[in-house]
Write a structure and sequence with these properties.
Length: 113
């Protein structure tokens, strides 16, 4: 297996074990590919959920630019909902899993079609 395949398996396990969601492997794979090289960097692979600047980048770069959503308070509410869903106690919130959950939240799977 390639390193990316190993990471996809790790993210799928995270979704099952920590979030209780059975992932759509095709969508998860596309989200992982969309994350680009950031998944191979230990620091960039995770989302710092307690850092307002990091959450602002998720909002701007992923929700607005990638998913094409309009700026508004519902974006922050969705990010908070995903943090709660992922579990505040989970220290490592993987970027690909975080983006996958946001994609499902906004029903924007078509972006990855």
């Amino acid at each position: 297996m390639s390193k990316r395949d190993d990471l996809i398996a790790k993210y799928a396990a995270d979704l099952k074990d920590k979030v209780g969601v059975t992932p759509d492997m095709d969508l998860l794979t596309k989200v992982v590919i969309g994350c680009g090289p950031s998944i191979y960097n230990a620091d960039a692979e995770t989302v710092a959920a307690s850092d307002p600047d990091e959450l602002g980048r998720v909002r701007q770069n992923y929700l607005v630019k990638k998913l094409g959503l309009a700026e508004g308070p519902e974006l922050d509410a969705a990010i908070k909902a995903v943090i709660d869903q992922y579990g505040s106690a989970n220290r490592n919130k993987y970027r690909a899993v975080f983006y996958y959950l946001l994609c499902l939240h906004f029903k924007k799977q078509s972006v990855y079609a």
